[in-house]
Amino acid sequence: MKKKYTYRFNPHTLSYEKVELTLLDRVKKICSTLGLGVVIGVLFAFLAFHFIDSPKERMMEADINQYRRALNSLNRSVDRCNKVLADIEERDSAVYRTIFGAKPVNENKRRPAAADYSKLEGRGSSKLVISTKLRVDSLEQRLYAQSLSLDEIYKMAGTKEQRMACMPAILPIKKNQCTIVSGFGMRYHPILHYRRMHTGIDLTAAAGTPIYATGNGTVTKAGRGGMSGYGVAIVINHGYGFQTLYAHLLDVKVREGQKVKRGDLIGTVGRSGLASGYHLHYEVIQNGNKVNPVYFLFNDLSPEEYDNVLEAAELENQCLS
Fold this sequence. Notes:
Order of helices and strands: EEHHHHEEEEEEEEEEEEEH
Structural class: alpha+beta
Distance between the termini: 132 Å
Low-confidence stretches: none
Number of strands: 15
Radius of gyration: 44 Å
Largest sheet: 8 strands, antiparallel
Number of helices: 5
Strand content: 15-25%
């Protein structure tokens, strides 16, 4: 093979002269060629690694996108479930429990217990995964709480007839023998001479007018004493969270511990205690809270009569006790 030579132009002699390459020159040339090749190889590898996906990487990327779409679809399903569950919870609190006079569900029971999601952190999709897990856990807890609530309501429905008999649902004095003159709310007291909360309704009637139990129950208080300002009074425990109080009586016809039924005679109208005239002060206590008795008179009044009574009871005037 014919040997190749390198020539260099000499400006002094104006001629080309043969250049003899030393071993070091040849080594340098080889190293520069190899270095350029390595640089080009590294650059190509960098571009290929960052901008060109391998078949395995493309498959993994497709799997990640599929999981992300599945999580988004799951979140949309959770949204729909939350809407349906919110409607059930609203009906539970506003309808079912109101019908049976039950306490509202404790909202703390509908909140999920604190959980550790740290194992799900540290990845690009961690935020979406943790958010979805938290929403699913919350939905699961709310469903569990609602299931317990419906079980409780189912048991209440089984005793509906008994509950309705115990609920205070009639006027304590026959409607043709009394008039509601003061309702539930802030009223001016005729003896104490200042406005204060009037926790029942006042029904005027003639002295000695019969007073009747408004629901089945057990007499827990009968007589005078222990109830400041009420004078001679009767308290009946109806169960299911209901109690009724009848104050300022002339006398009592029952004794403590006696069981009574709705419509039984329990006492007569008087003006004992802090009272300015003959009347009955009547209260309904539900789950420990004094509530407006007018709302429980549905068994004794027609819709028109009920509206008239409700309107009269809402007038802010002077109470009788």
